Amino acid sequence: MSTKPQRGPEEPPYARYAFLNPYNLSLLAGAGVAAAATGHWWMAVCGAAGEAMWMLFAPDSKLLQRTWFDKVWSEARADADQAALDAKLKQLEPMDRERVLFLREQKKRIHQLAAENPSLTVELMGEELAKLDGLLNDFTDLALECTRGERHLATIDLKSMENSWHLYRGQVEQMPEGDKRRAVAKKNMQVLEQRRNRWDDLRKSAQTARGQMDLMENTFKLLGDEIVTMSSPEDLGVRLEDLRIGVEAIREATVDEGEVFEDLEEQQMEQEKKARR
After folding, report:
1. pLDDT band at residue 266, thresholds of 50, 70 and 90?
2. How many angstroms separate the CA atoms of 257 and 198, rounded?
3. 154-200 pLDDT per residue, tens
4. Pair 80, 148 in one domain
5. What phi-psi label fits residue 178: left (phi over 0), alpha (psi between -120 and 50 degrees) or beta?
6. Does residue 52 sit in the same domain as residue 115?
């Protein structure tokens, strides 16, 4: 016996749209109220039967999906995407926020120029232009990662950390082998060296992400210049794919340095407690 395939989480909830809409709920409630008011309960039975037929066929109706449900789904996703973007923008520094807003306007300009280019059809350009939305989200995410990383870097007192390392090195040099204080001092040196290495990694990651953001911004500007005379959608696709690959490479090479630093700081505090005992 064949079973009906389950809809994926990213597919429109057609059954919910068919049931939870003002028209359907009003008719359903109206039938119930009319039946209660007149005492003619056959109205309620007819209303329930009609509702059952509606819910049986409406969710899978291609006509309703195309003319109604898919539009509701698109609007809901657009609202959710906008809300997520607004939440991210609030976390950014003013300069990065302005850069994101500029790219949004640049994306609209590229769409407009592509539509005005007689060599490029909407059908051919649709898939390529859709990649701009993904890249705009990538740019926002990179800006957010840079903001978090740079804020964490600002909390690290590198000079104090280096002074502590030299202090512990002096203890290691002065205390004899077998002294527990010497062993703890040596472990503190190791943790401080790890923290310094992580500091370098985080700084380089932030600088690399900043460079990729600059590349994306410059490419958006270049596309705005070239789209007027562009003769093939493949030309646009190649540039956008290169940007996407660059972003993925950064994500694969980037670890959550903030969590690493927090772990190392906890280790440092534990070692210092042991040293004072």
Report:
1. low
2. 7
3. 888 989 999 999 999 999 999 998 899 999 999 999 999 999 998 89
4. no
5. left
6. no
**R_g of the chain, CA atoms, integer Å:** 30
Integer Cα distance of 179 and 174 in angstroms: 10
Could you count the other beta carbons within 10 Å of the beta carbon of residue 218? Answer: 10
104 shares a domain with 85: no
Q: What is the span of the domain harbouring residue 46?
A: 12-91
pLDDT band at residue 245, thresholds of 50, 70 and 90? confident
Q: Is residue 3 part of a domain?
A: no
Residue 166's Cβ-count burial label (10 Å; 0-12, 13-18, 19+) is exposed
Q: Determine the Cα–Cα distance for residues 103 and 132; give it in Å rounded to an integer.
A: 10
Query: What is the reported pLDDT for 173?
Result: 92
- Does residue 2 belong to any structural domain of this protein? no
3-state secondary structure the chain: CCCCCCCCCCCCCHHHHHHCCHHHHHHHHHHHHHHHHHCCCHHHHHHHHHHHHHHHHHHHCHHHHHHHHHHHHHHHHHHHHHHHHHHHHHHCCHHHHHHHHHHHHHHHHHHHHHHHCCCCCHHHHHHHHHHHHHHHHHHHHHHHHHHHHHHHHHCCCHHHHHHHHHHHHHHHHHCCCCCHHHHHHHHHHHHHHHHHHHHHHHHHHHHHHHHHHHHHHHHHHHHHHHCCCCCCHHHHHHHHHHHHHHHHHHHHHCCCHHHHHHHHHHHHHHHHHHHHC
The string of pLDDT tens digits covering residues 200-221 is: 988 888 888 898 889 888 888 8
**CA–CA separation, 221 and 233 (whole Å):** 17
